[in-house]
Amino acid sequence: MSNFVGHCLVSTVRLMGLSASLLLACSQQEILFAEGPTAQDLESEREASSPAPSVPVVPVVPSQPSQPSQPALPMEPPVPVAAAPEPPAPGPSGPGGAAPQPVPEPAPCTAFGAFAEPEPITGLGLVGDTLGPALSADGLTMFFSLLGGGSEEAAADENIFSAPRKQGGSQFAPASLVPNLDAGGTEEGTPFLSFDGLSLYFFSTRPGPGAQGDRDIWVARRPALDAPFEEPAVVSGVNGPALDHLPHLTRDERAIFFVSNRESANGASNLWMAERESRSDEFSAPAEVPGINGSAREEGFTLSADGLTLFFASNRLTLEQMDLFVATRPDAAASFAAPEPLVQLNSEVDELDPQLSPDGSELFFASSRDGAFQLFRATRQCDTP
After folding, report:
1. Residue by residue, what is the 3-state secondary structure of the chain?
2. To the nearest whole number, what is the mean pLDDT of the chain?
3. Segment 30-78, tens digit of pLDDT
4. Same domain? 140 vs 16
5. Which of 26, 166, 263, 324 has a Cα at 20 to 30 A from 336?
6. Are residues 33 and 143 part of one domain?
7. Do 256 and 125 fall into the same domain?
8. Tens digits of per-residue pLDDT, 126-160?
């Protein structure tokens, strides 16, 4: 009996912070189910063992017991809780770091210095005349045409190739033929890649629906940058029975510039342009580019990204050899001012097909200064403060 009472007292000491009704339940159990000391004896013993004043006893009615509670467990010392680790300092990206932030594009250059001495494009691994260079928007893939291929059979055949480079420079990887463009026995050349990389414009002498004769401007499209170009189609609204080639489009593809020897008061071949409301619409009737054409031969050309600077080739100085020229205008609605020759790039032979890189820092062109036509590259530095 003393063991049971001792247990009861220990429990009451450990649970002094609990309600008096629980303390009494222990003593009440002793009265109801144990023989020996009375409840009054137990109460006296409990008061002697605890220095704290007793709390008022609330009578418990045995016939209406409260819901039984779970046995009270001894209170363990609190377990120290380790502080939550500090989150890692923000990093460039990924879990635990700051979310990747969009990298702002550098501000476009509004003023450039003079072009440096041109250097030949290397690494293409081709034999024949290379012409009509055009770069992708990232500047890492060049499209161009190869006239001839080192054999008599290929001497009059022109086809479109592409070659990549790892970074800016004159060294490219070996070129490969762009599939699905060569119709066999026809000429395809002077390519131009749209800014989104999904449309390739070029000239072709192939027959087909909408073809007008001689060279016509065609376009081949692809659904993704890593997909091949699909079967090409004639560009509606711009071709005529004469020669039409060397296309160049604005970034939104709503305006096309090209070279044609169609009838004109200026004679020879001239620069023309046409516009449309959207890429799915047909181009309006072409008109000559104001301020450029004359009685001489005007050919391959390229526009700056803002449309205010035009580079092109012409024989206007000698009416024989082709040289590179540049013309500017104050806004896109104005005519170009009188062109000036690019004396630092011209040679004593022909320069053709100038093409600016998307950022305007490189000018690619073809030159026969070393015999056969070969692609060259000239660079310039941005002078914008």
Report:
1. CHHHHHHHHHHHHHCCCCCHHHHHHHHHHHHHHCCCCCHHHHHHHHHHHCCCCCCCCCCCCCCCCCCCCCCCCCCCCCCCCCCCCCCCCCCCCCCCCCCCCCCCCCCCCCCECCCCCCEECECCCCCCEEEEEEECCCCCEEEEEEECCCCCCCCCCEEEEEEECCCCCCECCCCEECCCCCCCCCCEEEEEECCCCCEEEEEECCCCCCCCCCCEEEEEECCCCCCCCCCCEECCCCCCCCCEEEEEECCCCCEEEEEECCCCCCCCCEEEEEECCCCCCCCCCCEECCCCCCCCCEEEEEECCCCCEEEEEECCCCCCCCEEEEEECCCCCCCCCCCEECCCCCCCCCEEEEEECCCCCEEEEEECCCCCCEEEEEECCECCC
2. 79
3. 333 334 455 455 455 455 444 444 444 444 444 444 444 443 333 434 4
4. no
5. 263
6. no
7. yes
8. 999 999 999 999 999 999 999 986 555 555 689 99
One domain for residues 175 and 37: no
Q: 142 lies in a domain?
A: yes
Residue 378 has pLDDT above 90, yes or no: yes
Please indicate, yes or no, whether residues 343 and 208 belong to a single structural domain of this protein.
Answer: yes
Give the Cα separation of 45 and 188 in Å (integer): 113
Please report, for the domain that includes residue 304, its CATH number: 2.120.10.30
Q: Could you tell me the pLDDT band of residue 278, with boundaries at 50, 70 and 90?
A: very high
Distance from C-alpha of 67 to C-alpha of 37, rounded to nearest angstrom: 27
Which residues span the domain enclosing 26? Answer: 2-49
Is there a domain that residue 296 lies in? yes
220 and 132 both lie in a single domain? yes
Q: What's the number of domains the chain is made of?
A: 2
Q: Is the pLDDT of residue 205 over 50?
A: yes
